[in-house]
Amino acid sequence: MIKVSETLGEGGNSIKKILIGSGVSIAITIIGLIIFASLLTYSSIAESTIPTVTIIITIISILIGSSLCMSTVKKNGIINGVLIGLIYISSIYILSSIIEGNFSLNLKSIIMIIGALIAGAVGGIIGVNRRWYKLWVGGLP
User: Fold this and answer.
1) Residue 137 has pLDDT above 80, yes or no
2) Helix H or strand E encompassing 140
3) Rounded CA gap, 123 and 125, in Å?
4) How far is residue 40's CA from residue 58's CA, in Å, rounded to a whole number?
5) Could you count the other beta carbons within 10 Å of the beta carbon of residue 25?
6) pTM score, two decimals?
7) How far apart are CA 97 and CA 99, in angstroms?
8) Which tens digits make up the pLDDT trace of 2-11?
């Protein structure tokens, strides 16, 4: 069984990285949504693409955020990445539910939750292994 101190790291270092990863993911999402909103406004892209593009932007944002912030972590990239995805999606869900005044789950919400957790896990794996890959390639003549 994995101990909490092993997962989250000593001294809260991993907790800090998880929170930073979630923040980076949210910032990337905001930038992506602003770009997409501009494209919707000034082009002939159909509004029916909004749910699909929102899910894609969410997944890519979490993947990038967890990958970047887990690159200095030695182990447990999956768990830390999932935590980044969970914090991200919880924050977005609570904020959007408050704005809409509706705390219900629908198919789009469930897809986004599952996508966020998977993207966080994959990003965590990439981030942890990217550091080892750089060490391995850097060590070659």
Assistant:
1) no
2) none
3) 5
4) 17
5) 32
6) 0.80
7) 5
8) 554 444 444 4
